[in-house]
Fold this protein.
Amino acid sequence: MRWWSLIACLLILQACREPAISWPEDRPIEVKKPQFFPAFDYPSDNRPTTLRVLLGRTLFYDTRLSANGTTHCGSCHVLSAAFTDGRATSPGMAGIGGNRNAPTLANIAWMNRLMMEGGVPSLETQALAPLHDSLEMGYNMMHVVERLNRDGDLTALAKKAYGRDSIDPYVITRALACFQRTFVSGDSRHDRFNLGQKDHMNVAELRGKELFFSERTQCSSCHSGVFFTDMDYHNIGLSLVYTDPGKARATHKAEDVGKFKTPTLRNIQLTSPYMHDGSMSTLEEVIAFYNQGGVPHENRDVRIQPLNLSDQEQADLVAFLISLTDWNFVQNKDLLPLEGR
Amino acid sequence: MKNTFLLVGFLSVILWSCKDEPEPPVTTTADVNVSFNALWDDQPFVMQQVYMDDFGNRLRADKLMNYIAFVTLVAEDGTETQLKDFMLLDFSENNEISATLPKGKYTQLKFGVGVPRDYNKDQDPAQYPSSHALSVAGSQGMFWVWNTGYIFAKFEGKCDTTGTEGAELLTPIAIHAGDEISYREFVSAPFVLDLTSGSKSMRVNLHIDEIFSPVNGNDVDLAQDAITHTSTNPELAADFMDNYIAALTVDL
């Protein structure tokens, strides 16, 4: 009798693993981007398809990726805050708090290297970092693999999307990257103004724009191009002593201490607090800092100098920065968690 | 007619007996087994056992692992045969390589300690199958996720540097050596490994006592430095790796 009970239990368990969802056929997709954004070369083994994006979207919001099942990627990268989380540093799975401010993921596909010291070459490899960091998701990829392979629906989706036998690190890292490459933000009022819709910026914003691109402020020498970043690393004189060495953490070079990757300014209105450590709460505070010229750290970029901006000019710069917000991006339902999962 | 049959039968027997006997296949290869062993004062090094080093520090190891790359035997004519591409040595377990080589005499063993740049910098461990030493599973945490690259060698444990007899070991040791500054190549002293007559074994010995000692020219004194993640203390990482290489010997 006991054997029959055991067999019945095994059959029930097996039934739990069987996929309940019939996933549609996979097909290649083209991620929509503004015409003025540069073309993007996808990795040859991770071109976007409907099911790959769907799988990545599912995983991005899946708490099974954290050790205690409380945290997912979207916990620190919240769409309404342009994929930041409004905190100086994120609490992470253990509630301890990390060392750095959560960066925006908007247009992450075009960022040449990832992490603030640029230590990670691709979105695929980046997926391992928060997952293994004890201050973030505090887990281990192989445990995640084990957990996820118990989910018959997810396993079936992964097989269909990537043609592999099961969910493995390759599938997880590729799918997360594929979804994040759909985080395209290029529809701010400033973008519309540049496309000829001149009524999308007011006088104060236009004055701020002129200042931003001027030789006087040199804001645009680092915050350059369509993404408002030169993708390089600079010490802006934020501190005389850096507890976080920035780029030097990766390069071991004294001249790289305090250098952090220039962040994009797109959606900057929504990504407070600011700086690598979230030490400034408002855009007004940030502009006042640049106006003052920072502190004389030996690695401070030569362009960081007192600007002698008037209160009105500082307010105009803030107004310009606010015109870089893409409200359609932060309300894009395709980037939210799937309903029912 | 009867004689004809007899003749044919006789010739058949003769011809059959003239046919060559099948010869046993000529063996042109031999097996070699290479084991990697940690020693302290020429005795097997025991994880979590307390030892005293040449600086008077008492220490114990909780974890001792390192990558080796392209383990190669060099024949006396200079021909090189690779036994293994990558292997993660974990000195809490047995570490052995078994390989089949062309018969002959071999005179040198060489391998990298760490992971060479082309397989390290900006590489993705998820690209490898789980059975591979460089895969996510195979690397067993020997990978920096924030600055893509493998941890070449890891020594973790505790020590007491006060010189107080019987004091509890409270100071953590965490030596994580990686990045290009930590890659080293080991080339053994010449030897003669005769694989002409059959299979052989050889031992690669890592003399841990010589790592924590000035004997090899670099002071890895735990009282001065006991923690490096390479970027936080590149000098200690480099000294550790220099001593590691110098502390390797080969026994036949």
Remarks:
- Chain B has a mean pLDDT of 91.
- Chain B has five helices and 15 strands.
- The radius of gyration of chain B is 26 Å.
